[in-house]
Records
---
Amino acid sequence: MSKRMTIKEAVNLINDGDAITFSGFTIWRRPMAMVYEMIRQRKKNLHLIEVNSGTHGDMLIGAGAVKIWESCWIGHELFGKLGANLDRKVKAGEIITEDYSHQQMLLRMVAGAQGVPYMPTWASRGTDILNPKYDMLGKAGLRDGSNPKIPKEKAQWVEDPFFEEGTLIHVPAARPNICIAHVQQVGEDGTIRVWGQKFADEEAIKAADKVIVVAEEVVPEEYLRREPSQNLIPPYLVSAIVEQPYGAHPTGNFGCYEVDGNFLRDFYNRTKTQEGFDEWAEEWIFGVPDFDAYLEKLGFKRLQDLRANSAYKYSTRAKRGTR
Amino acid sequence: MSKRMTIKEAVNLINDGDAITFSGFTIWRRPMAMVYEMIRQRKKNLHLIEVNSGTHGDMLIGAGAVKIWESCWIGHELFGKLGANLDRKVKAGEIITEDYSHQQMLLRMVAGAQGVPYMPTWASRGTDILNPKYDMLGKAGLRDGSNPKIPKEKAQWVEDPFFEEGTLIHVPAARPNICIAHVQQVGEDGTIRVWGQKFADEEAIKAADKVIVVAEEVVPEEYLRREPSQNLIPPYLVSAIVEQPYGAHPTGNFGCYEVDGNFLRDFYNRTKTQEGFDEWAEEWIFGVPDFDAYLEKLGFKRLQDLRANSAYKYSTRAKRGTR
Amino acid sequence: MEKIYAKQGEYKVNDLLAVAAAREVTDGEVVFAGTGLPMLAMMLSQKTNAPNSFLIYEAGTIDGKSIHLPASVGDARCAYQASIGSGLYDVFSQLQRGHVDLAFLGGAEIDQYGNVNTTIIGDYTKPSVRFPGSGGNPDINSLARRTVFMMVQEKRRFKKNVDYITSPGWRIPKWPGGEIVSRQEAFGKKFRGGPSAVITNMAVFRFNEETGLMYLDTVHPGYTVEDVQNNVDFDLDVSRVSGQTEPPTLEELRLLYHEVDAEGIFLP
Amino acid sequence: MEKIYAKQGEYKVNDLLAVAAAREVTDGEVVFAGTGLPMLAMMLSQKTNAPNSFLIYEAGTIDGKSIHLPASVGDARCAYQASIGSGLYDVFSQLQRGHVDLAFLGGAEIDQYGNVNTTIIGDYTKPSVRFPGSGGNPDINSLARRTVFMMVQEKRRFKKNVDYITSPGWRIPKWPGGEIVSRQEAFGKKFRGGPSAVITNMAVFRFNEETGLMYLDTVHPGYTVEDVQNNVDFDLDVSRVSGQTEPPTLEELRLLYHEVDAEGIFLP
C-alpha cells in the first residue's frame, strides 16, 4: 500500500505525549508545514528531543504543545537572538528543559540510530551541563524508568581501561517516537535524498521509531536509484510520505529557497508575550485552513524571490543586507 | 608544497613495525600497487589492523612482512576459499592473530576515527571471539601499554545504566599509524571522492594518523568541489597523493575495472606453500621493477576486458562463469 | 501459475538448496545475504514468493536490483538500482538497531545447538586449519530476528560441539564469566530470535527453541533419514520429520539458470 | 603591499573586532567558526594572513569558498566550492579526533577564568533570562587547541564568576565530583589548550595558562586601560598591557566591505 498522504493525515500519526525530533539545523530545512498543522490540531505534552532547535521548536513551545525540551540551542540565528517563547515558558515554569551540548545531543541521536543505549565522548567536560544539580528530568522525578523515552541517568562518567586516557562522559541514547523530516526529494517507495549539508538528519531519522517525510517533490524510485550513493534513507524506514513544495518555509532549504528572514524577525518580535504569540498564531496558523492557504497569503512574488538559483543553490534575488 | 609522489616515495613513508590499515572490502579496491612495492622494499614486522582483509593481506603475510594481524576475515571470495598464507603462518606460529567480528572491527575503527578509546556494541555476544583464553595479544604479553597501538584489554563488558538493557561489549579503538587507500579520484590538494560502496573507508582513513591515497586519477579540486556532498575526505587529512591507474589490480574497482578472478585463483592455488609463494612473488613482484611493468606483463587486452562499462559500472566483457 | 516440480536428476543439489532457502523468506522482510548460495536464494525469492522483500549486502548496499549476479557482496553489481549505496557502518548500525528480519549465512561446521565455526579446526591457539574467520556472520546472526544457515552435509561438519564458536547458536557462553546458558538468557532484553533453519544438500533442519537442539524437519528427494543420520556426528532428533523437502519447480529452475545466475557463476 | 592604517572614525568597532580576530589565525590551520563576526574574521584571514587555512562550519561543510557571505553556518552559501558537504557527525568527530587548531566563538558573559555562559542569567532552575543555550560552543572550546572569543565589552558581561558555565575556561568543575580544578587537571591527557584570547569592542584580553586568569593585552584606539577596567566586574590584571590594538588597514576594510560582507549583512 502507498505511504502517500496529506499533511493533515500525517499529523494524525502523532500522539499527544510523543517524543519528537526533526530534520534540519536551526533555521534550515525544518518541517514547518507539519509544525503548523500540529499546532492547528492542538497537539499536547510533546517531548522534543532535538540535536538543535530553532523557529519550529520555539513555535511549538509558544503554542503550549511542549512539556519537555531536550536540546542544546534555540533561536532564530541573526533574525532573533533567542527563543522568546522558551524564555517565557521557562521563567513561568511551564516547561521542563534538559540541556546537553551540541555534540552530546548528536551522540545521543547516534546511539539511538545504532541501537546502543549510550555513546562515550570527551565533549564539554568541565561545564554545568553535567552538573547533577541541573538534571531537570531527574529533579522532576521522571528518571524512574517508567517512560521508555527517558533514561534513568542524564549522564555517566567512565574511566578508559584501554588506553588510560581518563574519564569519559557517557550520554544516553535518544529514542524519539517520531522523526518529522523535510527533504528535497523522496521516491514513491520512500528512498530519501537530501541535497547539501545533511546536518544530523541521518542520525535523527534512524534514531526514531517512525519517520514522517515531507518532500519538495516526490520522484520516481528509479530516478533516485541511478545514484544510490547520493541517497540517505531506504524505503522500509519511512512510514509516511507527503509532497509539499515550500514546506519548510520560513526556514531555508538548500537548492530550493532562502530563509525568509523578514518572516522570522516578525515572528521573534511579535511573540515575546503570550498575547503576541496568540495573535501571531491567529494570523498565520489558525487564520488559514492549511499550508496551501498559508503560501497564498505569503504571495507568489515573496516566494519566488526566495527561490534558489539553480547554480548557486541559494537565492541571488532575496535582499539580505543593507547593501 | 605538493603532496604528489610516486609509489616508491609513498612506501618510504611506511616504517617497519607500523600499524597499517587499508581501503576496500575483501577483493575490492585494495591498494595493490602499494602492497607490491611494500613487499619489494621488504617491509617488516607490520601490524595489520583491518576491518576485513583479503588478497592484499594474505600477500603481505605470505611475504613475511606481517607480525600481527587483527581482523575478522581473510580470503579471496569465490576465487580462493581461505587465506592460505595466513593458514600456513598460523600453523607455523609465525604470526599473531587477534580475531574480532566484522562489526566489532568496524566499531574499533569508528572509535579511532572519533577520537574516543572505545565503542559499545551488542554485536557477537556469546562467541569464542570474546573468550579471554583467545586474547592472543594478551597471551603474547603485548597488552602492557608499552605499544600505543595495542590496547590494554581486548574487550570489556559493561552494564547499561540508562535503559537497563543488559551487558554490552566495549571494543577498543583502532589507531593505525597509516591508512593506505586506493580510490577513484583525488583532487590536487587531497579531497577524496569514492564511487559506489564506501565500505569502511571513511572510518579507516579517519582512524589513521597518516593517510596515503592512491587514485585512478588526480583531478582538479574545483571539479570535485562542485559536488561537496559526493566527497569523502578533506585535504588536511591526506599526507601523500599518488596517481596510479589500475592500481587496485587484481582486486576490483567500482566504475573502473573488474576483479581479475583468474589472477586471484592463480595466486591462491600457487601460494599454499612458502616455496610456491616465493616463486609467485619472483614472477609478479620481484621479477618486475615497478607497477607499470607489472601492468605491461598483464597486457592490454586482459586489462581492457576488465574495464568497467560506464553505464553498468562493471565489466560486461569479462568472462565470469561457465555460461 | 501451476507448480510443475522437477524430477530427480532434472536438478542439481545446489538448485534445491537455493530453492528451499528462498522459501524461508516472507514477503516484505528485510534480509541480509552473504556471498554465493545465500545471494541466489534471496534473488530467487524476490522473483517468486517475496517480491517486496529488501536485500541488504554487508559491504553497504540496500535493496539493489542486480541484473547481473554479484560475485561477492562487495561487487559493483550489488549497487545497480539500489536504494542506498553506503558502507558497513550504515548497514551494521541498522542491523544492531533491529531492522533486519532474516539472514542467510554459511558455515564450515555446526553443532547440535546451531553454534557455527568458520574460524579454525582444532585448538584455536594451535589450529590444524585456519579458515577465513567470522566476517559478519556472528554480528548478523546475533542481531537479526532469524538466521538460515546453508551448509554441506558431512559427518565432520555436523558435530556435537564445534571447536570454536564463531557464530552463536542456542546454547552459548555468557561473558565475562563464560558459563554456557541459553541464547535467551545470554542475550536478555536484546534476544530477538536465532538460527531457525539449516539447509544442506541432504535435508532441512530446524531448532527447538526451548531445548536449543537441532531436529530434522524434511529430507531431500533421494535421501533417507538414515542417510542424514549417517552424516551427523551427534544424536539427531528425527522424531519431528514432517516429510520430504519440496523439490524445485521447473519455473524456479528457469529463474535460477536464466535470470538469477545466467552466467553460471555459482550454478555452473 | 604597504600597510596604510585607517584612522579613528574611518572604521566601526565591529571592523576592528573582525580584523583583530583575523590576525589570530596562523596560515595552514584548521579553524571552526560560528555565525556572525567569527565568520567575517575567518573569511578575512583567508584573504590576508592565512590563505591556506581550512574553515569548518558546525553544520557540516569543510573548506568552503563562499562567494556570498553565509547568514548562518547552516546556509547553503557555506557549501559553495567546499571540499566536503556532510553533517554534524563528520565535523564533530574530526574535532574530537584532534584535527581542529583554532575556534572563533561568542558568548553572552565571561568570567575571570574565561568560563563562558550562553545559557541563562540567574539561577538555572529559575532563570531571569533563558539564552539560546550552548550550541557547539563548549564542544568546540573543549576539543580545539585554541579558542578566541568575540564579545561585547560590558561590566555585566565580564563577571568574577558566571552564573552558569556553558563553555569551559581555565578553572572548571571536574565531574562527577565537581571540585574546581585547573583545565589541565580536569582534561588530563586530553588537554589540548583552551581560551587564548577574548576580543571585544574595547580591547584584546589573553590568559595566564598557569593562574588561569585573564589579563589585558592591548587596548583599541580611542579607549584607555581605565575604560576597560570600568567595564570589567573583577580585578583585571593590567600589568602586561603590550600597547594599542593594531587598527584595521584600508585594505582590510576594503576586503570586509567589498568582498567578505559586500551585502552588508553583519557590517551594515
Note: Chains D and C do not touch (no CB pair under 8 Å).
---
Amino acid sequence: MEKQFPIQTWLDGNGNITADDYENSLTEELAKRFYRHMVRIRTFDQKGISLQRQGRIGTYAPFEGQEACQVGSALALEENDWMFPSYRDHGATMTFGHTLLNILLFWNGRNEGCVPPKGKNIFPPGIPIATQLPHAVGAAFAEKKKGTKNAAIVYFGDGATSEGDFHEGLNMASVFDAPVVFFNQNNHYAISVPMDKQMKTKTIAQKALAYDIPGVRIDGNDVFAVYFETLKALEKARNGEGPTLIEAVTWRYGAHTTADDPAKYRNQEESEIRRTQTDPLTRLERFLKNKGWFNETEAVNWQEEASKEVDAAVEEMEQFPAADPADIFNYVFAEPTWILHAQKEQFLQVKKGDPSWNQQ
Amino acid sequence: MEKQFPIQTWLDGNGNITADDYENSLTEELAKRFYRHMVRIRTFDQKGISLQRQGRIGTYAPFEGQEACQVGSALALEENDWMFPSYRDHGATMTFGHTLLNILLFWNGRNEGCVPPKGKNIFPPGIPIATQLPHAVGAAFAEKKKGTKNAAIVYFGDGATSEGDFHEGLNMASVFDAPVVFFNQNNHYAISVPMDKQMKTKTIAQKALAYDIPGVRIDGNDVFAVYFETLKALEKARNGEGPTLIEAVTWRYGAHTTADDPAKYRNQEESEIRRTQTDPLTRLERFLKNKGWFNETEAVNWQEEASKEVDAAVEEMEQFPAADPADIFNYVFAEPTWILHAQKEQFLQVKKGDPSWNQQ
Amino acid sequence: MESTVANKQKLTIVQAVTDGMRTKLTEDERVLVFGEDVGKNGGVFRATDKLQEEFGEARVMDTPLSEAGFVGAAIGMAVNGLIPVVEIQFLGFIYPAYEQIMTHASRLRARTMGHYTVPLVIRAPYGAGVRAPEIHSDSTEAIFTHMPGLKVVCPSSPYDAKGLLIAAIEDPDPVLFLEPMKCYRSSREEVPTGKYVVPIGEANKLQDGEDVTVICWGAMVPVAMKAVKEMDKKGVSCDVIDLRTLYPIDKDAIAESVQKTGRTVIVHEAHGTGGVGNDVLAIINDTSFLYQKAPVERVTGFDAPVPFFGFEDDYLPTAERVMHAIEKVIKF
Amino acid sequence: MESTVANKQKLTIVQAVTDGMRTKLTEDERVLVFGEDVGKNGGVFRATDKLQEEFGEARVMDTPLSEAGFVGAAIGMAVNGLIPVVEIQFLGFIYPAYEQIMTHASRLRARTMGHYTVPLVIRAPYGAGVRAPEIHSDSTEAIFTHMPGLKVVCPSSPYDAKGLLIAAIEDPDPVLFLEPMKCYRSSREEVPTGKYVVPIGEANKLQDGEDVTVICWGAMVPVAMKAVKEMDKKGVSCDVIDLRTLYPIDKDAIAESVQKTGRTVIVHEAHGTGGVGNDVLAIINDTSFLYQKAPVERVTGFDAPVPFFGFEDDYLPTAERVMHAIEKVIKF
Ligand SMILES: Cc1ncc(C[n+]2csc(CCOP(=O)(O)OP(=O)(O)O)c2C)c(N)n1
Ligand SMILES: Cc1ncc(C[n+]2csc(CCOP(=O)(O)OP(=O)(O)O)c2C)c(N)n1
Ligand SMILES: [Mg+2]
Ligand SMILES: [Mg+2]
C-alpha cells in the first residue's frame, strides 16, 4: 500500500523541486506568502508554550513542525469555506483568519476562544477526538444543498482515525458526495501511542479505499505539496465530485501538550534530527535561497512583525476584561430556563456576598 | 474495486463446478451435510414466520435465502470456537449447536433465548447494530492470550458496516492480530435502505484495505465457497495471522422482520427471480444431481426429520414452564442490591395480590 | 406565520407526528427530515409515511446506519442554516450518538457564547409494551434531562404530539422529542390541520382533584388515568398532571397542585434510581416541603434492564400499582 | 487470598490507584490493564506508572484511540475469562463507549440469566478544578447510576481508592470507578501494602455530629469538610457522610443520620437536575419523611455545561455555598 500511496513531495529536504511539471506554479509571491505565514504561526506557537510555562495561560497544544500542513491547507481555502479544526490546528485557523486574541483566550480558559470573527466559518476546536468529522460533513452538505460552491475542511490526527466518528464521517460524506476535505495530519503519535499501535496500515491515505473516495498521501512538511493537493481536493469538492482524504505526513517536535513529557515515550533526538533535516520552514527557506528569492532583511522583518503581532495579542489577552461568571448561565439556551434563572440569581447573590442569597 | 474483489464462486447457478482446482474437496459427504443443514434451518425459518403470524411468538427475523452463508460458515468452526451472531443468524447458531428450543424462546420474549448450551460459545444475538464486533475481537484476543488455537466468528450485515463499531472492531482486531473472522452477509438491504444509500463502495470486502487485512468476496449462495473461504480465514486466525473480512454476497427473500413490508421499498419480484435462479439450496441440489449423488428418498427423509425436529421444539417451547417474573430481578447482579431486593419484594407481593404490598 | 387552525382531523399520535413534520416541511424550506428508513419505507412505525413522496429525496432522506454520524452531520447542518429533524429508530439505539449529543448538540451555544446554535430535533420512539425484541423498549429520558443545553419533551396525546413537535422544530435549541410508541395508535383525537404550537415547558392538567396529585407523562398517562378513574369511584379525587416537557419541568404546575393536595404519586416507566421522578421530588422538596402530608410515592420501572417482552407487562407500572400508591399516600 | 496488611506507605490517591492495580496484577493472572497511553507513558495522570515495565506489554497495553472499541473488546475478554481494567482518559471521553456500557456491559448477566458475566472495571478521572480544557471536567456519574447492572464507586481518599479499586476488580459485575482528579495528588495517607478491600455499597462516616447531615463524595469531600469545620466553630455540629459508592447507595447510613439530625445538605459537583443528589433525596423521602425538620438543601453544579476553566471555580460548589446551605437548613 505504501507503493500505491507514495508520499508526494514537490520540494525535497534541500529545497529542490522534485515535481518538475509544477515548477511554474511555484511563484515567488506564493513561496513568500507561505514563508511569512509559517514564520507567523511558529512565532505564535513558541509564545504559547512560554506563556503556559509562565502560568499566563493554561495547558497548551503546540504544533511546531506541522506548520506546512496548517498554512498550506488553510491558504487553499476560499473566503466562505468552512474550517473544522482540532485543538492543535490554531496555526490553520489563524491563517484562515481567526484572531490571535481569541485563540489565546481559548487556551486561557475563556469561551471567547470558541468565537470566530464574524463571517468566518471556523468551528470551535474539536476536543472529543474525531467528533468534528461528521460536523464538517453536515456543514458541507448544507452548502451543497444551498447550491453554493463552498466547501469544508476538517483537521484530525493519526490517532483520530481509530474512532468510529472518523469512519462514519467519511462514509456519510462519500454517500452524500459532500464537498469536504478530510485533512489528516499524521504526526505519528497520538499522545504517546505510536502509529503502529494505532493501526496496522502503514498509510492513512489507503483508508479512503473503504469509501471509494480519493486518498492522497503527501509530505506534510512540504508546503507546496500541501497547498496544491488541498486546492485540488477542494476544487473537486466544489465541482460536486465529493470528498477527499488527504494524509499529510509530518511530525510534532515537542510535547503533545504542555502537560505531556514526550521523553517518557520516545527519543526526542529524533525530533532534533527532523528539525535539521525536514523542517518545513527550513526547507522553504532553502528553496527560496536556491531560487535566489530569499532576502535576509525581509525575513527578519517578517519575524519581527510576527513577534509584534503576537506580543500585541498577548497584551490584549491580558488586558481583556475579566470574564463575567454570569456567562456560565447566559448561553445555555436562547432563553434561560427557570432553573438556570434561579441558579444564576443565587449564584450572583453569593458572589456579591449577600448572605440572604440562599434563602430563596 | 469490483475487479480487485471479484465474487468467488465454486458452483455456478446450475450447480456446476467453476473452481476446478478444488473439485476434489467437494465430496459427497460434505455436500450432503451442507444440504441437510440447509434444509433444517430453512424449515425452522419458515416455521418461525408462521408461528409469528399465528401470534405464537413475537416479531421474527427470517433469513431465508441466506442459508448457505450461515451453514457454510458455521460448519467451518471448531467445537471450542466462539460465535457472535446478529438477530438474523440463528441459522448459524443452530448449525453450530444452539438448541432450537432456546432460539424459539428468544423470539418468544424469553431470556432463555440468550443462553447457549453449556460449553457452547455462542453469544446472545447482537441487537444494537455492529456492537458485537468488538466483543468478538475481545473474546478472540482472550483465546490468543490463553495460547489456544480457538478463533471467533462474528456475523453482521451490509448496513452494519456504517456503524463506528464496525470500524473500531476491525481496526483493533488488525492491531492485535486477533483470531477473528468478520463474516458479513451482504443481503443488499438494511431494512429498506439499499446498499447504494448505505455506502459508496460497490463491495464490502474492499473495506479490509483500510486495516491491511485480507478481504474476501464470495458468493454467499454458494455453500462451498462460504465453507472453504471461512475455513481458510479461520486457519489463518488460528495460526496467528490475524483477522479476515469476508463479504458473502446474498439476498433475503422475505421481509426484514415479520414487522416489515418489503413491498414498501423494493419490488419483491426480484426475490422471486432470485429464488428460481440463485437459491442456495436449489443450487446445491443441482450440484448433487449433476454428480449423481442426489437421492430423492434421502432428501425427503431429511425434510421430514427437520420438520419433526422443529415441531418438537415448538411443542417444547409451548410447554415450557411459564417465565418466573422474579427473574426480572434475579440476574441483574451476582448479588441483588438492596434496591432490587426491595423492588422484588414489593413486586411479588402485589403479584400475589397482597394489598399490604406497598406499605413498606 | 399565520395560524391556520381552520379544520380538524382525527389522528393517532403517530399520524399527528407525521402531520407536524408535514406542516413544518411545507412552511419552512430549511426543515429537513432524515434517519434510517424514513424515506421510501416511511419509517419503521410509518411516522414519515409519504413525506418523501411529497417533499422529495432532498428534503426527506434515508441515511446510512450511523447514529453518531448522522446526528453529528445534523449538528453541522443546523449550524449552517438548516433545521434537521432526525429520527432515531428506537430510543434504545440513540446511545451511539450520545457523545455527539452530550458534547456538541447540547453545548455548542454555550461554548460559542451564542455564536453557533443547534436548532435540531431528535425524534425517538421510546418505551415498552409493544412486544419488541430486546433493547427496543428503553425509557432513558433521564440521561438526557441531565444534559444541560438540551430540552426533552414527551407528548401523550395526538394534539400535544403535533403541537409540541412544531414547537420543537421552531425552538432555537436542540430538542429530544420522545414518542410513546405503545400509544402510537392506541387512540385518535381531533387535531387541527395546519400550524399550532403547544409550548415547551408547560405541563397539562388532565383532571382536577383535591386529594392526591398524580404526575406522569408519555405512555404512563393512560395507566395513571386508569388508576385515577378507579380511585374516583372510591371517592378519592386526584389532580393529574401530564408533564409533557421533562426538561425544563413545569415547576409551578407541580407546586400549585402539591400545595393543594399535600400528597403526591409520580408514575414513570424508567428505572426508579436516577429517574426523572426524582427531579419532580426535588421540586416538591424545594417548593412545597411544608405542604407535604405524606412521603411522595414513586411508581416506576425497576432497577433492572427492561426485560424481554415476556416480562414487560410485569416491568411496566400498572394501574394497580398506581392505585396502591395513591392509597398509600392517603393512608399515611 | 491472604491479606498482607503488614506494612504501610504514604500514598496520594493516584498512587493508591496504581498500587491497587499492581496488587491485583500481581495476584491474579487474569487481570489486564489497558487504555490510551497507559503503557510506556504510564497514563496521562501516571496512574499506570511503571506497570507496563513491571508486568509486560501483554498485561498492560496501549490501545487505539477507540473507546467504544476497547470497552467492547473488554466485554468480550471479560466474558472469556479475563478481568480487564480499562482506563478512560477523562470521564468526558467515555461517551463514545456509552452504548457498549449501556446495552452490553451492564445487561449481559441479566440477558443471559447469569450465563455470561462481565467482571470489568472502567476507571475514569472525573471532575473540574484542574484547569483542563473543555470537556475534560465532566462529572456525569448520574448517567451511569441510572443504568441497571452497573455499580458506580467514587473514592475520596488514598485508602479508599486502593481498597475500593481492589473490591471493584474482584467484583463479579462491571464497576465504573470514578477518580476525583482534582484530589489525585492533593494529600497523602497511610495505605497498607498488599491487599485489602473497602466494600462496595458502604458509606463512610467522616465526622459525627448532631445538627445537620452533610452528604458528599469524591472531590466534594474536602469542600464539604472545609465548610463543616467552619460551622463547627460556629457551634453547628455536622454528621458527614462520604457515600463512596453511588450505586448502590448506602441507604442505612443515610437514614440513620437523617433520622438523627432531621436536616440534610447534599453536595455534588454534577448538574443539579438529574444528579445523584436526587437519589439521596428519594432515599430520605422513602425512609425518613417524618424525621425531616427542613427541606433538603442541595449544593450542586449548575444546569449548565461545565464551563471553560476560566469559570470552573465559580461552577464548582464552594465551602461558602455549603455553609450557606447548612445555615439554611438550620434556620428553617
Ligand atoms: C474521545 C476522546 N478520547 C480521548 C481523548 C484524549 N486525547 C486528547 S488528544 C489525544 C491523542 C490524539 O492523537 P491524534 O489524533 O494523532 O492527534 P494529535 O494530538 O497527534 O494531533 C487523546 C487520546 C480525547 N480528547 N477524546
Ligand atoms: C444501533 C442500531 N440502530 C438501528 C437499529 C434498527 N435496525 C435493526 S436491523 C437494522 C438494519 C440492519 O441491516 P444490516 O446490517 O444490513 O443487516 P440485515 O438486517 O440486512 O441482516 C436496523 C436499522 C438497531 N438495531 N441498532
Ligand atoms: Mg497524532
Ligand atoms: Mg442487510
Note: Residues 20-323 of chain A form a domain with the Rossmann fold fold (CATH 3.40.50.970).
